[in-house]
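Before a computer can learn anything about folding, someone has to put a protein's shape into writing. The outcome of that step, for a single protein, is printed below:
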Amino acid sequence: MLYNLPVPALHNLRVALEMIKWEHSVFALPFALCGAMLAADGMPTVHQLGWIIVAMITARSAAMAFNRLADAQIDAANPRTQTRALPAGTLTPGFVALFVTVSCAVFVLAASQLNRLTLALSPVALAVVLLYSYTKRFTRWSHLVLGFALGIAPSAAWIAVRGSFDPRILLLTVAVTFWVGGFDVLYACQDYEFDREAGLHSIPRYVGIPKALWIARLFHVVMLLLLIGLVPAFGLGKLAVAGVAAVSLLLAYEHSLVSPRDLSKLNAAFFTMNGVIAVVFFVFVAGDRLLKW
């Protein structure tokens, strides 16, 4: 129990959860739940839902903590990230490494509780979400690698429910890939100057901020087209169509918040908007599958 942990351990755990923005698990979790409900054509079992949620949270926790560990020196050199836990010295690399290890172990445990295929694929999933952290060292397309790391969530949830794979769920995986990729391009605009000086790779660094904003918009258009494709692929109804429309309006609002001359709104509220997008889409798809409208 948490209340039996010594005070320093509780403090470190709290700081670690703040470091990885634990509350932002809401980004990919709703899309994973969409995948689960599409696989079940309704509501999965409580057992399946419970372990899918555990797997999603622990995979993201491992990925975020590993990213902070891998980028500790980069974060220390970047004025925007110098106050993060590792550069600031409020957590040790050893504690963060332990946090990653425990998160990975619980993820594998969750996979083992679902079916044999999820367990067999769990190392592959961990490799994808962990190794993303190094991609900005050699490719400008790291934004899409990050997107894919979250995008595998609905496919993984499908496998968790069905114990097999269906190519149709790739529509949602690729949609999430471009959604996150577009958002990450926007967010990377903040580090345009630093990335150039540090030799890191990103789309804004190579094309500049104005063109990067247009690429982010293009990514989100691709996302919307793929979400539209879900409707006939799974026989979804009017509620799901309304969900796609709601997502398109929220994305349009999100893009209205930024311009090449003003990136000031790329903050925590901007993250919250993306969480809202994920939750809204899930609510409409869940309603569609449960009500069959």
